[in-house]
Amino acid sequence: MTTTPQTPDALASAWASAWSQPEPTLWLPFYSPKAVYTDHAHGFSRTGHASLKIHHTIWRTSIPDFAMTIVERWHQQGTNIDTARYSIRFRATGTNLGDLPARKATGRKFVMHGRVDFEMLRLREGKGWVLGRVDE
């Protein structure tokens, strides 16, 4: 069972850690039901848990040893006390064993550096934080 992160910092850490796990069920609880995930490099967006589950499954099937580490993080103030803007710079590694929608499998190991911007939403009664929007 996934515990709801109690701070924006904890949410970013839990999200990155869950990306490094093969099961989408560990990653999905960090998103609001209507969350939007946009991958600007590959030019697509996913909305809602069903679509996010497909995205995680495609990625992890193609790159089964994918691992993400946060290298740097920035927390910006949100528009009110119930939102937060948060950015991370990450380092990811893996082996591209299967085709991705925009890239054929190479069979080679890779190292990737990137940045992700989050819009985080505070749950009612201060019971933690979830992701409303992710821009990678």
List keywords for this structure.
SnoaL-like domain-containing protein; NTF2-like_dom_sf; Nuclear Transport Factor 2, Chain: A; 2 helices; alpha+beta
Helices, strands, pairings?
Blueprint: H1 8-19, E1 31-39, E2 44-47, H2 48-62, E3 67-77, E4 83-95, E5 109-122, E6 129-135
Parallel strand pairs: 1-6
Antiparallel strand pairs: 1-2, 3-4, 4-5, 5-6
Q: Can you offer a commentary on this structure?
A:
The chain has a 6-stranded mixed β-sheet with strand order 2-1-6-5-4-3, with helices on one face. The mean pLDDT is 92. The chain has a single domain, classed as Nuclear Transport Factor 2, Chain: A (Roll). The radius of gyration is 15 Å and the shape is globular. A hairpin with a 6-residue loop joins strand 5 and strand 6. It has helices spanning 8-19, 48-62; strands spanning 31-39, 44-47, 67-77, 83-95, 109-122, 129-135. The two termini are 26 Å apart. The protein has 136 residues and is of the alpha+beta class. 20% of the residues lie in helices and 43% in strands.
In short:
This is SnoaL-like domain-containing protein. This protein is α+β, with helices and mostly antiparallel strands and 136 residues long.
